[in-house]
Amino acid sequence: MTSTRRLVAAGAMAALALACSQVGVPRRLAGLHRTRVWTGASAARLVSRLHDKAVAPASSAVADYGTASELRLYLSTFSDNGSALAALDAMLRGIRNGRMRFSATHEDAESPGRWVTFGAGGHHMFWVSDSRLYWLQGDPETMRRAASELPAPLSGVWT
Which of 5, 11, 82, 91 lies 20 to 30 A from 97 at CA? Predict the structure, then answer.
């Protein structure tokens, strides 16, 4: 490989690492290595496809962890806490009203402010912290370990 090609490859890797770090997608989560990541418009399209409408901001990321994609993290960053909480509230209302393919949500007893549900391919846990909406998909134990490594939910009372 020529020095120019090495320099281009190194620059591309640095840009990818910077993009991942900007949206808060860890390299490892719950003891699993990150195996795939989508950022920006491609992540927003992936999240929106799950909802059958445009819902995610362009500052979103989706990451798979583990060789068999044992864990998936959806992460959307909003302009402020109020916007992130409004998105969380809309999701909770949508699930409660039966407009989404999930079982009834309930607040996680071990971690107030985090919501859990089942449906659409597995177990899910979601919450808001620092203008970011986190959504994990995986088996319950792996999700709990991953959640403990991510920022805690905002303090407050959620309905």
Answer: 82
Please check whether residue 156 lies inside any domain of the structure. no
Residue ranges making up the domain that contains 95: 3-149
Tally of domains in the chain: 1
Is 21 inside any structural domain? yes
The answer to the question of residue 157 being in a domain is no
Contacts of 88 (CB under 8 A, 6+ apart): 115, 126, 127, 128, 133, 158
User: Residue 82 has which token pair?
Assistant: 């109020």
Per-residue pLDDT reduced to its tens digit, 90-118: 888 888 887 667 888 889 988 889 999 99
Task: State the pLDDT confidence band at 22, using cuts at 50, 70 and 90.
Answer: very low
Question: For position 70, which CATH number holds?
Answer: 3.40.1000
